[in-house]
Design a protein that fits this description.
The complex is a heterotrimer of chains A (288), B (214) and C (189). Chain A has 288 residues and is an all-beta fold. In chain A, 2% of the residues lie in helices and 61% in strands. Chain A has a 5-stranded parallel β-barrel. Chain C has 2 domains: 84 residues, Rna Polymerase Sigma Factor, Chain: A (Orthogonal Bundle), CATH 1.10.1740.10; 71 residues, Arc Repressor Mutant, subunit A (Orthogonal Bundle), CATH 1.10.10. Classes of the chains: A mainly beta (288), B mainly alpha (214), C mainly alpha (189).
């Protein structure tokens, strides 16, 4: 392994050789990784240093540069597009991450900082993240676990899964399901065009929740003592509730009713699909 | 004889009574069917208020507004000249948004802070019927076509994007047909507008990918 | 929502994707783009007009709506984006409406203590089948109507309403209650 590099402007690693480099970084440095194809894996550790491990193809070069509080890592090729590379990177948990790929999967594990991960074709998996978290893929499933902050997740042609996430949540896909479980948030806005949406989480007083799909079902599980005004809209589907609906304000294809004090606002909307409102645990019972 | 709790029922509904008052009110409601009936009615009134539809004016006020603010109706008066190419327009849009501090991300969709007014949402995107929407869609579609034709987008990505555009277009078609049969439906208006916006967002994403590969 | 860990460079300024066309339109309109402002107008005119109609009555609503948007154009430069544009516009609309009402010297009709409305009816009032809920709102005394529209329709809290109308919060609560009691007769049954 190469020795610790504490100050550098650019470092060019060699031809087809395995790269294993350790770079000391100061608090506030951001990690930028750009990888056309392959994989980007970033794992958090407690050292104030970044370790980059990769094996480029013959002719490709891995460039690591530290400037203006940004540590950038990328692969270049003298012959146009570089070949696929798999990066295994250890980075401080406090380090903000900016990871971009084209035909690249992205995995993040243990971050306690802001995470931005975008790829065109590839899955994005993130465990951790604090602050602003933005995950995006065109063709690839996106999964986020144990994160806290302002979350934006966008896919086009695959599923989205958010588990044990707290903070404001926005998620959208076109063809894919959206699963939200263990959500603690006062603002949730998720939509898909062709897919199901499942939500299990808190409903905060005064919160805003919008769950929408065009072709697909909605399954929502909220706590027993929820206080919400619930608006249900479907053009071609049924609504089934474990909560008493009571005096509902009805209209064509849409009606609203109140649970508890009606404090939060919940919009449940499908076009072709059913909507189910359940208590915790009931959705799992139905699945079995 | 007046029931002293009647005048407090709205406070009970809005949860603005003190803890002790609320306990007393709950106890009274448990034993007073008349008050319970009134309380139910008040809740229905509040729910009804929240579900009121907003209606635009019968007259299109825009020409008068444009005249008053010094715009020629239907024409832009751009202070900053905007680049013509779509990828540059996207970049300019992002820059303008960041400069304006616009983080109106989720919040722009919903009601005022601290209160849910779920039923009072206006026609969220009345611009969906604006011909400028069609023009923007055409521009973004052209950027996608350009990316495909000049190889900036690989064929697999193009296939995925076009498949999903077809998914959205199908959804838009279904929503439109439903709305034609029931043009006064607030729900269908909102749903169509939201679906059209999803197409706009998808094309904008595709154009951004093309731009990034330039 | 928590801030990023101490010492971490935030990513807010770095390549944040456009997630909301409205934010773009606001920025463009603030720079003088009339097309962008027209899109904002079309997006929000129904809500502004409905607020004006419910608080001022139908005849003045169009004039007031026009005033709101002209004022919004002039003040766009003061919009900082720390709240939703719709929220900012709605608050501006309320200010324009209340100023117009003061200028017209509209007497604020209110329910007074001792009105029969306080009595507990043994049954709900007969529904006015031919008169819908909106019409019922328009028939409320002025002051009660303002409070009802601002609280139940627009979502303002009593202390906010009290500050807007120059009354105390207790009066706002009382007028709201009386308005709701009267509007029971206009519920769909």
């Amino acid at each position: 392994m190469a020795g610790m590099i504490t100050a550098l402007t650019a470092l060019t690693m060699g031809l087809g050789q395995q790269t294993d480099t350790l770079i000391a970084v100061q608090q506030g440095t951001r990690l930028d990784v750009s990888n056309f194809g392959g994989k980007i894996v970033v794992k958090a550790w407690s050292q104030n240093a970044v370790r980059v491990h990769a094996q480029p193809s013959s002719g490709d070069v891995i460039e690591v540069a530290l400037a203006s509080s940004v540590l950038s890592v990328k692969t270049t090729s003298p012959r146009g597009m570089p070949h696929d590379v798999e990066y295994i990177i250890m980075a401080p948990a406090w380090m903000a991450l900016n990871l971009t790929g084209v035909h690249s999967d992205i995995d993040v594990d243990g971050s306690q900082a802001a995470v931005r991960a975008e790829t065109v074709k590839g899955a994005v998996n993130c465990r951790g993240g604090t602050g602003y978290i933005s995950l995006k893929s065109v063709e690839g499933a996106i999964a986020l676990h144990d994160a806290k902050g302002r979350v934006e997740v966008n896919s086009v042609s695959d599923d989205i899964s958010l588990i044990d996430v707290s903070g404001d949540v926005s998620a959208a896909t076109v063809s894919g399901d959206i699963e939200l479980e263990g959500i603690q948030s006062s603002r949730v806005d998720v939509s898909t065009v062709s897919g199901d949406v499942a939500y299990a989480g808190t409903i905060a007083d005064g919160g805003h929740y919008r769950l929408a799909t065009h072709n697909g079902d909605l399954k929502v599980s909220v706590p027993e003592k929820t206080n919400a005004t619930i608006s249900v809209s479907t053009f071609n589907g049924e609504f089934d509730s474990s909560f008493p609906v009571g005096a509902a304000d009805t209209g064509t294809h849409r009606f609203s009713f109140t649970v508890g004090s009606g404090s939060a606002g919940i919009e449940l909307e499908t076009f072709n699909g059913d909507i189910a409102l359940r208590r915790p645990g009931e959705m799992k019972d139905e699945a079995h | 004889m007046n029931d002293p709790w009647t005048s407090r029922l709205s406070e009970h509904l809005d949860d603005t009574l003190t803890g002790a008052e609320r306990v007393a009110a709950d106890a009274h409601l448990a034993s007073c069917p008349a008050c319970r009936a009134v309380a139910d009615d008040l809740q229905r009134v509040r729910t009804r208020a929240r579900a009121l539809d907003d209606r635009p004016p019968a007259t299109d006020l825009w020409p008068r507004i444009a005249q008053q603010i010094g715009l020629e109706p239907g024409r832009r008066r751009a202070v900053r000249p905007l680049p013509l190419s779509v990828p540059q327009l996207l970049a300019a849009s992002v820059a303008l948004m960041l400069l304006s501090g616009g983080a109106a991300w989720l919040v722009a969709r919903h009601a005022a802070a601290g209160h849910t007014a779920m039923g009072t949402s206006a026609l969220r995107f009345a611009w969906a019927n604006d011909p400028r929407y069609g023009a923007a869609i055409a521009e973004l579609q052209a950027a996608l076509d350009e990316g495909r034709n000049n190889g900036r987008l690989d064929t697999a990505t193009v296939r995925i994007l076009e498949h999903n555009l077809a998914v959205v277009d199908t959804a838009i078609g279904q929503a439109r047909r439903a709305l034609e049969a029931d043009p006064g439906s607030t729900y269908l208006n909102h749903h169509l507008a939201d679906t059209m916006r999803q197409k706009f967002d998808l094309l904008r994403e595709a154009a951004a990918i093309v731009s990034a590969r330039t | 929502m928590t801030d990023a860990a101490p010492g971490v460079t935030t990513l807010n300024g770095d390549g944040a994707r456009v997630a909301d066309p409205e934010a773009v339109d606001v920025a463009l309109a603030a720079g003088g783009d009339g097309g962008a402002f027209e899109r904002l107008y079309r997006r929000h005119v129904a809500r502004v007009h409905s607020l004006a109609r419910r608080m001022m009555g139908g005849e003045a609503a169009e004039d007031v709506t026009q005033d709101v948007f002209v004022r919004a154009w002039a003040k766009l430069g003061t919009f900082r984006g720390d709240a939703a544009f719709g929220t900012w516009l709605h608050r501006l609309a309320v200010n324009v409406i209340l100023t117009r009402r003061s200028a017209r010297g509209i007497e604020r009709g209110r329910y007074e203590l001792g009105d029969a409305i306080d009595a507990v009816p043994t049954a709900a009032p007969e529904p006015h089948a031919a008169v819908d809920f909106e019409e019922g709102i328009s028939r409320l005394p002025d002051g009660a109507r303002q409070v009802f529209v601002l609280h139940d329709v627009a979502g303002y809290k009593h202390d906010e309403i009290a500050a807007m109308l120059g009354i105390v919060a207790g009066t706002s609560k009382s007028q709201l209650h009386h308005a709701r009691m009267a509007l029971r007769a206009y519920l769909d049954r």
